[in-house]
Amino acid sequence: MSQGWTHRAPALAALDARARARLDALPPQRLPKGATLFRAGDSAAGFTLVLSGRIEVFLPGPEGRGLLLYAVEPGQSCMQTTLSLLGGEVYTGEAVTAGETELVLLPRALFLALMDEAPGFRAFVFAAFGLRMREMMQLLSTLAFRRLESRLAALLLARAEGERVAATHQELAQALGTAREVVSRRLDGFARAGWIETGRGSVRLRDAAALRDLASETLL
Fold this sequence. Notes:
Blueprint: H1 17-24, E1 29-31, E2 36-38, E3 46-52, E4 55-61, E5 64-72, H2 79-87, E6 94-97, E7 101-107, H3 108-117, H4 119-145, H5 148-159, E8 164-165, H6 169-176, H7 180-192, E9 196-199, E10 202-205, H8 208-215
Antiparallel strand pairs: 1-7, 2-6, 3-7, 4-5, 4-6, 8-10, 9-10
Helix pairs in contact: 3-4, 5-8, 6-7
């Protein structure tokens, strides 16, 4: 008998056989880059489990997508979805796939049933929620105590695949909650310092150590 998709999700290792079978009955979906999963004001239809890829959750700004709140990668959860399903809250953010993403959507009824009946699933949800809350506190600290240059350096390091960051200036600006022109000026400064090279839709890191030093700086 072939294994279902849950064997690819180490975070679900504590599931009992019945809960695992109920989840394995759900079909994985593949979404392209840029697919919108929810917008501010929507209610959660289900709980998303990411198998591969990345979903980014933004706080809407006055001109559309704004500050990047967090990313959902394999083994992680969306805090806003958990709040919506358990507390009836509507979404306050917008979720978009950052690249091709494979995921499984648990219908709301199944999610609530597993929360009641499956201790392993419940432990996963609350552990992931706690981790996300800690990350949100770190984000608040970052916004309060780190300069934009420091935040940009940290973002480049976090998104780098090898030496390359596949992102436009606009995408980086959206993630930082600022204007594209502001990010472009900072990137030009990084390039003049010899830390990066900019290209069409990408940034190549030339001096990751210098970027790490900048990323660690605070206003204090």
